[in-house]
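For reproducibility, we list the full input for the aspartic acid complex.
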Amino acid sequence: MKVCKFGGSSVADASQIKKVKAILDKDQDRSIVVVSAPGKRFSGDEKVTDMLLLCAEIVNKGNSSKDKFGDVKNRFRDIAEGLGLGRDALEEELDVVLKNIESGAGKDYAASRGEHLNAILISKYFGWNYIETEKCIVIGENNKIEEESYSNLAALINKNEKYVIPGFYGRSPSGEVRCFSRGGSDITGAIAARAVMADVYENWTDVSGVYSSDPRFVKSAHVIPSISYKMVRELSEVGASVFHEEAIAPVVEVNIPINIRNTNSPEDDGTIIGKEPEKKGVIGVSAKGGLSKIYVRKLMFFKESGVRHKVLSLMHLYGIKPCYTLYGCDSISWYFETKQIENIDTEEMCSRLKEEFNLDDIELKKGFAVVGLVGNGIEETMEYVDALDELRRNGIQPSSVSLGGSYTTFVIGVPEERKLDAVNCISERLFISK
Ligand code: ASP
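The corresponding predicted structure, in tokenized form, follows.
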């Protein structure tokens, strides 16, 4: 049995949904489908989820969302018509949703209705069963998937039947509609795959898999045929975004492979996320910008126990949550997202840190990016030497280098404005000129 999740662009209009049907018709094992709300049909288009969130906001300010909801209605009417179901196939459901939003059902309720309505419509078009996730998926605080979700969902599924399931939402433990974070239909797909112990979780999107680098900016980018769960996590940590990272846990725990596929190019094999690839070496190069670095130094810094923790705790009070740490003999540098210090007086913070810990030196600098080289056994292949050589040849000076704690990612700090140059030249050296 295969569980297939189709993202927003794959179900954005009737012609896309027809492609989904053709994909399902090709393989009878594809019997459970999780769908997103209609996404963007073209660049600059509005996602239905965003339209619905706006409706909730309008109502929250004491106004009527009827006009804005008219746009939502028209999106669904166009889809229904394009699928040959008739323009008013969803009219009753749309009226219920509008009524509830107008009476203040709230943000999560509104946001979830894109998936809800789309799944109903698609189930009508396929002639498949519809499963209401409010009945079975329980979402705790901070996106936590409550254990009962798997058995609740499994109990609603008969292995000889076919189902359409709305992604992105379930209910809170106390029973109100609750959404996952944005892009959360990936998580619903993973829950469904685990609930039925699927052979594979197919995640259909608008790219042909996980790329070695961002194909929009890197000429030498190519699809990675197979990658481990761990590496996908590490790649997303250094800026790559293909798959909702919280959707990995439900399937990794039971070893269900994820196959990333392209709805617009279904003949491509895509990427299999699962086991560790046998071949050693770097398979992905990605970069994340928008970082700042804080450097603190004090003679005999680490002699005093718990001092690092105390400095971090004070920085936390100012909203700083570091993403990379580098240790020196008497110093530490932390990278963190610059947006965390947008609204704080950094001079005041640095003086306070300096005073409270009697530091010899403290320095805060903006304008960094980190480039991550992700792969298996990279401590052995030492391709990071080639990467550093390439940076030197291109006049890009690293601000830090680290093999990290996992031996899966080699992280290089670079100036933000050279981020893309760095990824491009490293990718070219490691993947093309080898
Ligand atoms: N529709 C939701 C969003 O736009 C969830 C999803 O597509 O996965 O974030």
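Residues 107-126 form the longest helix (20 residues). Residues 7-8, 36-37, 47, 49, 114, 167-168, 182-185 surround aspartic acid (CB under 6 Å). Both points were considered when choosing residues for closer inspection.
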